[in-house]
């Protein structure tokens, strides 16, 4: 131990020499330190400058946006789809990989300690460095512990570490984008399923109606008050209605199978789905684009994180011109003759700074910096392009939602009016004022308006989903936030 203490004192006494070497390294690298950017940095344009009409005071919204339709079956479908989606499993694996890269960067801050050893039988060369007292054949032993610790005095490793952290944020945002895309897909298919079910019911009523009109035409033909043309037309209408029912049943089956596939279930599971019970209540649309909602779009968040990654990697690349200063050392035993391996005279010890300075690298560092500059500018340009696209999608979504909601309200009133006319005609027929044919005609008008109503409802609900996807989530306040 005394010998070890003496070696340590000798190492510490050489500290001025170490400082002199470091200063000389900085002097040699000063000619290449922080070169001027070959590619000027583009500025990130804030959202409020791209589109002044954004609502900066919009409140936060709920995450489970599909629950606003109050359909337990829809909630179950979305939950199952998010739980067992291959696309989300892929995104989750990317998160694990990014986290592993972050752990790799974290390890660079910690001292690396290893233990090694070697034992063998050697034949020494008698024509090289050879002591006469040594046997030609002798044993050789080596046991030591090594230390290598990057001091990161310039903060280069910290830049790469922060870049890895932002990369994790980016892949997590991409995971959220995948989840949003999957949930909107399930909900849109469910809306199509709802429309198909309603159409099947309406077409079934239409078949019965066309059958009755056809029978009336046949009865009139028998008494000579209807010609064959009318009878044939009624027959064509009846057969066409039957074809519509068959097509509607097929559409319902296809929608059920698609929903089952999204939930990772078999077709028979989908065929057991019940008719939807969606609540299409009036939706409070934002008058202006809510900035804080748009900013939370997962794809925009991922791109912003990629910008931070590119900038930090560029800053780290510039620090490559500076010398790496590590603390290196080892302690162990080495000897010829295994019997002397752990003797006090066989011990060896070393500790001190290790400096690595790039002077002539053939332009490798400069090329890497240029590449990082290009990557930074590309990330910024991609974000700006996606931001403009997102603003357009939200503006279009709000306009489409307002239009479809107005159409839905109009067709709702028309559907209710047709229902009222049908009820009045039915009551008059019951007391003998109107004929059965007039009742059927009123019912036919009622069914047509029902089809228009179902179409308008599906379009309004789909427009809602499109707007949700454009905003990165629901724009509706939760019950707690509405008070």
Automatic annotation (TrEMBL):
One GO CC term of this entry? plasma membrane
Quote one Gene Ontology molecular function term.
efflux transmembrane transporter activity
Mind telling me which SUPFAM superfamilies this protein's record contains? Outer membrane efflux proteins (OEP)
- List each coiled-coil range: none
Question: How is the protein disposed in the membrane?
Answer: Lipid-anchor
Domain of life of the organism encoding this protein: Bacteria
What keywords were assigned to this record? Lipoprotein, Membrane, Palmitate, Signal, Transmembrane, Transmembrane beta strand
Report the sequence similarity comment from the record.
Belongs to the outer membrane factor (OMF) (TC 1.B.17) family.
Q: What PANTHER family does its record include?
A: MULTIDRUG RESISTANCE OUTER MEMBRANE PROTEIN MDTP-RELATED, OUTER MEMBRANE CATION EFFLUX PROTEIN
Q: What is this protein called?
A: Efflux transporter, outer membrane factor (OMF) lipoprotein, NodT family
Where does this protein come from, organism-wise?
Polynucleobacter meluiroseus
């Amino acid at each position: 131990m005394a010998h070890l203490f003496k070696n340590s004192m000798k190492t510490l006494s050489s500290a001025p020499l170490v400082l002199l070497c470091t200063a000389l390294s900085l002097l040699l690298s000063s000619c290449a330190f922080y070169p001027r950017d070959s590619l000027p940095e583009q500025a990130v344009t804030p959202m409020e400058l791209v589109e002044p009409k954004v609502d900066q005071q919009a409140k936060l919204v709920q995450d489970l946006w599909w629950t606003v339709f109050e359909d337990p079956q829809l909630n179950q479908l979305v939950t199952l789809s998010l739980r067992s989606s291959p696309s989300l499993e892929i995104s989750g694996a990317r998160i694990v990989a990014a986290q592993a890269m972050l752990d790799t960067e974290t390890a660079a801050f910690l001292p690396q300690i290893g233990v090694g050893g070697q034992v063998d039988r050697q034949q020494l060369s008698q024509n090289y460095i050879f002591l006469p007292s040594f046997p030609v054949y002798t044993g050789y032993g080596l046991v030591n512990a090594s230390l290598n610790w990057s001091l990161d005095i310039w903060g280069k490793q910290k830049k790469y570490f922060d870049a890895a952290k932002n990369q994790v944020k980016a892949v997590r945002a991409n995971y959220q984008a995948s989840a949003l895309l999957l949930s909107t897909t399930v909900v849109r298919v469910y809306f199509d399923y709802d429309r198909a079910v309603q159409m099947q019911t309406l077409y079934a009523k239409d078949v019965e109606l066309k059958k009755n009109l056809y029978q009336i035409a046949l009865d009139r033909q028998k008494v000579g008050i209807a010609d064959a043309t009318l009878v044939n037309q009624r027959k064509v209408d009846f057969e066409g209605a039957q074809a519509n029912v068959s097509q509607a049943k097929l559409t319902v089956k296809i929608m059920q199978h698609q929903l089952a596939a999204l939930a990772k279930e078999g077709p028979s599971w989908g065929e057991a789905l019940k008719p939807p019970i969606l609540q299409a209540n009036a939706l409070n649309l934002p008058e202006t684009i809510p900035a804080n909602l748009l900013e939370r779009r997962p794809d925009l968040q991922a791109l912003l994180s990629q910008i931070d990654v590119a900038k930090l990697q560029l800053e780290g690349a510039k620090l490559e011109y500076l010398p790496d200063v590590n603390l290196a050392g080892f302690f162990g035993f080495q000897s010829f003759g295994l019997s002397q391996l752990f003797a006090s005279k066989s011990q060896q010890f070393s500790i001190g700074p290790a400096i690595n300075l790039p002077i002539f690298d053939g332009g490798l560092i400069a090329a890497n910096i240029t590449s990082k500059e290009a990557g930074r500018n590309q990330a910024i340009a991609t974000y700006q392009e996606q931001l403009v696209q997102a603003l357009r999608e939200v503006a279009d979504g709000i306009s489409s939602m307002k239009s479809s909601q107005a159409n839905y309200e109009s067709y709702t009133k028309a559907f209710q009016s047709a229902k009222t006319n049908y009820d009045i005609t039915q009551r008059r027929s019951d007391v003998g004022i109107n004929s059965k044919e007039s009742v059927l005609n009123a019912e036919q008008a009622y069914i047509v308006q029902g089809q228009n109503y179902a179409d308008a409802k599906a379009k309004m609900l789909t427009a809602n989903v499109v707007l949700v996807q454009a905003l990165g989530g629901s724009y509706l306040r939760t019950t707690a936030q509405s008070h």
